[in-house]
């Protein structure tokens, strides 16, 4: 059964933004050029406005990041102020289209360093990501579907209309329950048969059912997801995004899909321009080169695949290129004759052994190889561990390939060769994105980055990418203002309190009903959504009076002006109210007046992740207080003469009841040529912290200066 959602939509500028394919740098250039032809016009913009960032800084977060192998890296540890998108990896499915979590406990039970005990209603990565987004409104969170080892059922499900429809509906439900912002489809890969590699991963599905039919079925699935996202977004007042991960080599893309049709469907495509070379190759090479080195027999590079995509008339703003926060390596590689680039594009020998004893060209991994758990020797080390790798191999030296704009390492004593990204290479990639007006960068993955300044924040490469794309300015706010409402109400009775004084006996009721779902993903997601979490109740009385605690079950009661704030999370039994259950507590007036149920004007329910991070707010009694839009003043029509100076912001102000003075947030669009007669329209806009936008127009008329002759008697 599909659960119906109640919602309240607040009009947001994010829902109205028109995304331009023109990069901001070109807009600035146009303004500068025009300024040379006109009187200077001062236009102020709000750098933190709620609109699509010029570029994207997308980051994968794997659910195994929380364990020892990745240094117990939790969502709270991420430099979230540096990202625009965080991809939760991965959500799987079965052959019927039911959703599966590869690690349900990691997603919805683990403490993840949050202070929540294991199994708590707020336990797990997904609730932690929800909290992270609330603290960092510059990010969007989403789910990555499939992945390298979990793409085995895509072929069957996409080919069957009934299964495909079920899968799409399940994905939409999961997205609502978790309140995420986008879907990223990682089908690796359509029309590419691969048997499971159980030596490397005991849970690897492979893609044994892949075939030519995948090319069309993939696009059908993507279009169905697009349609469903747009429909659901319209219903709840939210703009969802759809992305996909695709191969980084031209011939693979031609095998997998019609890229032009794909990019017409999606918001952006994450081109996996990493793993382009590895221990499966006969020769060592760059796994993530920016440009093609002529000596590379495959010609793989970011520039090569971008050139291919642009040749297909793909919108460059939809192309997101990849960065590797890890190495790939070969065990025994000949030095070659070029002493400045030893080992590069040189033959490798299978002198190492995988966990099952089979011969391998790969170098040792950071983690000990075991059958079914990283059993293939691939030379994979996290970027953050490269210093430890160098310490184990003292003559492992770092080199730079100027043509490829890519680093690599080689040891003359062991003949080990490693390819990776570093600060210099990701900075070059960011510059490439801007030069070619691309959509941004995606990185695999957050836990593998290196901490800087002796902190726990792993951000060395992340920060280089962010600053390369955006500079040092704060990223734009992307949070959309809307609410998914729980079916919750309150019963008000009168009764005796612990002090013997007559007061209010209040029963909070959770009327939600948990649905029965196949698979292991939607059930915990439904429970997370449908449970009232760490509730605070804000009471307003009609006569302005305030309330106090009437029994211990009322938790902590504080007063702010004429509002009474009841924190039920201060009581163990009040922390969570699961579907179908109630919680009763008592309050008394702070004055001596008699109590009556009709004295309560409104009650607002707020839910929290922790003491400070609010997840949602809804009014359960009375009318919701509407946030008032800003007011713009001083924008009356004006007439000036040719050549007269004009400042469009002179005398213009913006105020807001909730936010105060917003004059410095005013944005002006339009132009006035003070050197030419005519009527010019300027549009003024300002947005408050709740996303309420006010616009106003004014007409500036430029007229010729009237010249009057002086007459005298001599004429």
From TrEMBL:
Q: Which UniProt keywords apply?
A: Carbohydrate metabolism, Chitin degradation, Polysaccharide degradation, Signal
Q: Which InterPro entries match?
A: Chitinase_II/V-like_cat (IPR011583), Chitinase_insertion_sf (IPR029070), Cry22Aa_Ig-like (IPR032179), GH (IPR017853), Glyco_hydro18_cat (IPR001223), Glycosyl_Hydrlase_18 (IPR050314), Ig-like_fold (IPR013783)
Q: What class of enzyme is it?
A: hydrolase
Molecular function GO terms recorded: chitin binding; endochitinase activity
The biological processes this protein is annotated with in GO are: carbohydrate metabolic process; chitin catabolic process
Q: Where are the transmembrane segments?
A: none
All residue ranges annotated as the GH18 domain in the record: 55-472
EC annotation?
Answer: 3.2.1.14
Q: Which reaction does it catalyse?
A: Random endo-hydrolysis of N-acetyl-beta-D-glucosaminide (1->4)-beta-linkages in chitin and chitodextrins
The organism's place on the tree of life at top rank: Bacteria
N-terminal signal peptide: 1-30
Q: CDD domains, from UniProt? A: GH18_chitinase, GH18_LinChi78-like_UFR
Annotated stretches, region: Disordered:
194-215, 337-370
* Protein name, UniProt field: chitinase
What organism is listed for this UniProt entry? Answer: Enterococcus durans
